[in-house]
TrEMBL record, chains A, B:
Name of the protein described by the UniProt record: Tryptophan 2-monooxygenase
Annotated catalysed reactions: L-tryptophan + O2 = indole-3-acetamide + CO2 + H2O
Domain called Amine oxidase: residue spans: 61-517
Originating organism: Phenylobacterium conjunctum
InterPro entries tied to this protein: Amino_oxidase, FAD/NAD-bd_sf, Flavin_monoamine_oxidase
Amino acid sequence: MQGQKSTRRQVLSAIGVLGGSALLYNMMTTMGYAAETQFAGPPKLSGAKKGASVVVLGAGLAGMLAAYELTKAGYKVQILEYQDRSGGRNWSLYGGDTYTELGGATQNVKFAAGNYLNPGPWRIPHHHRALLHYCKAFGVNLEPFIQFNHNAFVHNTEAFGGAPQRFRSLAADFEGHVAELLGKALDQKGLDAEMTAEDRDRLKEALRDWGMLDKDFKYAKNLRSSEHRGFDRPPGGGVNGAPSPSEIFGLSDVLDSGVWRQMSFFMNSEFQTTMFQPTGGMGMIGKAFAAQIPGLTTYNAKVTKLIQDKKGVTVTWSDTGTGKVNETKADWCVCTIPLTILSQIESNLSDKMQAAVAAVPYTNSVKIGLEMKRRFWEDDYAIYGGHSFTNQEIGLISYPNNNLFKDGPAVLLGAFSSGMGGYHLGGMSPEERIEVALTQGSVFHPDSYRKEFLSGASVAWSRVPWIQGCCARWTEETRQAHYQDLVAMDGRVVLAGEHASYVGCWMEGALLSSLDAITRLHKRALEA
Amino acid sequence: MQGQKSTRRQVLSAIGVLGGSALLYNMMTTMGYAAETQFAGPPKLSGAKKGASVVVLGAGLAGMLAAYELTKAGYKVQILEYQDRSGGRNWSLYGGDTYTELGGATQNVKFAAGNYLNPGPWRIPHHHRALLHYCKAFGVNLEPFIQFNHNAFVHNTEAFGGAPQRFRSLAADFEGHVAELLGKALDQKGLDAEMTAEDRDRLKEALRDWGMLDKDFKYAKNLRSSEHRGFDRPPGGGVNGAPSPSEIFGLSDVLDSGVWRQMSFFMNSEFQTTMFQPTGGMGMIGKAFAAQIPGLTTYNAKVTKLIQDKKGVTVTWSDTGTGKVNETKADWCVCTIPLTILSQIESNLSDKMQAAVAAVPYTNSVKIGLEMKRRFWEDDYAIYGGHSFTNQEIGLISYPNNNLFKDGPAVLLGAFSSGMGGYHLGGMSPEERIEVALTQGSVFHPDSYRKEFLSGASVAWSRVPWIQGCCARWTEETRQAHYQDLVAMDGRVVLAGEHASYVGCWMEGALLSSLDAITRLHKRALEA
């Protein structure tokens, strides 16, 4: 637990630097600069030395991909996995599932058949080409994940007396005010040194179009601004079909809302459209990977020691059911154990690698799933998928993207909390977390939220026994000091996982890291 | 054809006023101010007088909804339909279908099973509540229509030497430059009269976040700006995982692209997320409506005369197969015939209504479907649904939103053309249109577009025999002069359809108009 404690200190220190309500967004955006990936097709590894063996630690996506590709290359591969299932953080909780967290609280999930909570990854960017490649190759059906929803809400306790507003209205007003102000500045000539007169005129016309300004270059209450922000009386048919415009919000009110954070968030590479999710829950990916490597994985194997010498690697592990201690020997090792756990395992890894393993703090996200009797967000609010954001600890609520328009119970994500909110919710019992999620989420749907609630489930990643954190959160400083030491082959051992990538906290990072690691391992093995 | 000619003159005149490349966007945005709808649930009509009858002209959505609800209210209803099918503009073309346009050109559609072109409506906004209500009630399965795709292209012949750019890069750079410039203007104090000093400081920080400005408030080449616009070398895993930033485009280049038009377009109410399409093609809606009113429709019935007196309505029509002339009498008439056609039919409608019918020009859209051997836009360009825009006559190309990731042929929309481009393409033969679509669409996918092409189909709405135009295009002036005359009950006749709404060119407008019309008709009938 030493590693875990130092992790927490570092994250809390980072929180102090970042400060306050902008935290969630900052954490989301600093988790890596992932835009596209470096995937150039599956590796073409072949010709492993006869009898060469690899032990893979961890049956998450990185470990399973390593096992799959190394087996194809001719290695004798076995995987040791702590849990009784494959997939790691790629995981969905369904009705009938049981989950026990650190501290001993056990949750019996009661969702209706087909409904689920994805505690870990839940969406796939279109540029995560490695993951998309293997999903297709392994038969995982993907459906659109509705990331961007103009009609969902933005809530800030410091804005509009705590009343949520539709994203579209706030974003339209932000753009309208910015356009009007910049237009005024252009007229004042103070920016003339920045551009030609022709570009100044062109920019003015662009601002008028973009910001829905009127002929006097004002952002004002009229049918034009309402076309972006929404109408007071919407257009209809027949005799009373004429629309009427809505009031615009003043600049100061719009600034209170902080909507530019969501506007910027939606432009982040990881969150740009189009995004995807597997039909039936994110855990379908882990299951599809596992089906490709039948018989390779030993479950319930808790690794306690990792020792290498010039001839090979010896992994000591105990059976979590029987307590029996075993040793597994192999020529090479791909270790995908999360750094939070690896830092607690005895090894003779190099000092540099051990320092790197200890240096990387993990995030502490909490996710809460709430099953509701019906899709009131669709029926009553015209919200189909996407997220409503808040500066409360729950961070956001997210509406299901599957089975749109269907009757019957549905599970929405009632919290995706990080930073201080994550620690606060993580410190609570599962029942208390759901109470907080119901209270805070009710700001968006006051008439329905508690009334339609059926049951909930939560995962606080700091309390997940097999990882004790969510995912690696590198900073520029830790990258500089430790990243190359972490990813370099250390004798016969190489690390892989999202923590060994620049696409941190994403499945794509785990896969790209794994492909890079096994490509180097294979080269080293052929040279050995 | 008199009406049609005057329509064209008026539209061409409007084109002159609007001018040039902004035309497509202006047409799209002025087609109505539809944001939300005025639907308040299905009407509760009942208690029709014993034996009261209604003849409905046209089996499009407006006509079928009128027949459905009036039948439920107790009326004896029959529909006369010119075509041999129901649905009207709600229509999908599949492989095996044949379509003959005005001028005589016949197309035999060759698409693979399951592929289609939607010549008319193709997407449904989340706020079109009447349509969504009846889709659910009538069992139409809806799936997401991917309207907004950051990774699709924007092409302008006058920008970047004709090279398309990703929307994300242009939009990020537009926002970055706007943020930097407004930040400078705020520093110059010229805008101090516009806001408090506190709001000025808050706005500056908002601009920094939104525009991805650096610590010196510059929009510059760095990993921060690349997070929005895309990287040069994207982040990856392992040893070489570090990303590198991309060059930013200068303000003048961004202005050349006209990207603010797309940015504004995506914020228009009709095009805000989430949008939908029926599984299997838009025509599934018309089929579902038709299934609710079995036996009510007489097909191949060309209406030639509409005469009413104090006792009832007499409709004269000829069977388009046999030429036989018939008369149908009813107490009341709901006429959903498009104004382009109604203006050519003999009637004794009031002078005011006839003037209104003649006053409304119709748009002239052209849609072209191109079937490709494979989804190269997904495999090679990471574009999943959404649109790539161009200032060429095709207007845009749009990628299919169904069967994502699937192997085999797929149909993309190769043109959605209006204005001058619509007239130009409409004047060509179907073969010539496809040639233009292939040439112009190749700017986006030069290596694949012609190579992967299998077959195409096109619909130029000015040449569609039963409407001779696409949809009604009201202006503020024509609304003022004629709208109330068009929608008012004229004796025993009431008009319905998208043309009789403020949600013009949308199915929702047809439905809302129909509900309003039959509600008034029922009230009048009970009073009569």
